[in-house]
Amino acid sequence: MKKVLLLIGFVVTSLCASAQKTALVVCSQGFQGPELWDRHELPIDKKGYITIFDGQTFAGWRGYGKNYMPSKWKIQDGCIFLDSKAKGEGGDIIFAHQFGPNFEFEMEWKISEGGNSGIFYFGREVLSKDGNLEPIYISAPECQVLDNERHPDAKLGKDNNRQSSSLYDMIPAKPQNAKPAGQWNKVRVRVLNGHVQHFQNGVEVLSYDLWTPEWTALLQDSKFSEKSWPAAFDLLNNCGGPDRKGFIGMQDHGDNVWFRNIKVKEL
């Protein structure tokens, strides 16, 4: 068996007799107080993708800014499912290992009728000047998850840049080939040397370059501009922080949403 340990940018390998590959992925238990870590052994497929959700447990997952999984997030038929009508606590969630600067991930998502959600990458748990936790979306680019036919956000923004798989409020996904609410869509996001690509249902729908003047201009022309939202502008303009790493996460926007087949590969 070949095992790969992913720990703060270092890779340690050990070889055993079996051809099966697994990864020991180190995940943060929470950012408050002394840093604590969990280790999870996760399978790697032939293409080098690590499966970060096994369809049975929330190993490695927790709420954003929390050290536990909020109760509205459940496992249903091998999927991560947000039961928006359930009693209990909701909120955004993350896989608690920071990926970057070069990686790609893929997953399938299904949204309820009229629903809205999102997929974040390079997310960071940061505090405001007054000590409160900032929301994940002011540090992380968002790949939109939306019922394009029914949710009002589909007609807001500019040039349909709030529809599914768009870089939320900045770049529209073109062609817009999302399947309707209640059907599965596949998304893949690739980041290599700052060049980011979104793929929806097997088609590249947008690309852009982080940490460039063009990226700054995109932010300045969005709701995250320096004038409109200085904290968001600063965090997103320096996406991933000094190490250019961050969490992959999913949004609780108050609507039922499902995610499955979630895989990540370091490039």
Helix fraction, binned, reads under 10%
CATH class: Mainly Beta
**For the CA atoms, what is the radius of gyration?**
18 Å
Give me the count of strands: 17
Note poorly predicted spans.
1-17
User: Do you know the CATH architecture?
Assistant: Sandwich
Major sheet details = 8 strands, antiparallel
Number of domains: 1
Globally, the shape reads globular
Please trace the helix and strand order, writing H or E for each element.
EEEEEEEEEEEEEEEHHEE
Structural class determined from secondary elements: mainly beta
The CATH superfamily title:
Exo-inulinase, domain 1
Distance between the termini: 21 Å
DSSP helical segment count: 2
Looking at the structure, the CATH topology is Jelly Rolls
Strand proportion: 35-45%
Give average pLDDT, whole number.
92
Features:
mainly beta; eight-stranded antiparallel β-sheet; disordered N terminus; 6% helix; globular; single chain; five-stranded antiparallel β-sheet; 2 helices; Jelly Rolls; 267 residues
Written description of the protein model:
This protein has a single domain (56-266), classed as Jelly Rolls (Sandwich). The chain has 267 residues and is mainly beta. The model is unreliable at 1-17 (pLDDT under 50). A hairpin with a 2-residue loop joins strand 7 (73-76) and strand 8. It is globular and about 45 Å long. The chain has helices at residues 213-220, 230-237, and strands spanning 2-7, 10-15, 21-28, 37-43, 50-51, 61-63, 73-76, 79-82, 93-99, 103-111, 116-123, 142-146, 185-192, 195-200, 203-209, 246-250, 257-266. The strands form three sheets. Strands 5, 7, 8, 10, 13, 14, 15 and 17 form an eight-stranded antiparallel β-sheet that branches. The protein has a five-stranded antiparallel β-sheet with strand order 6-9-16-11-12, with no helix packed on it. It is built from two helices and 17 strands.
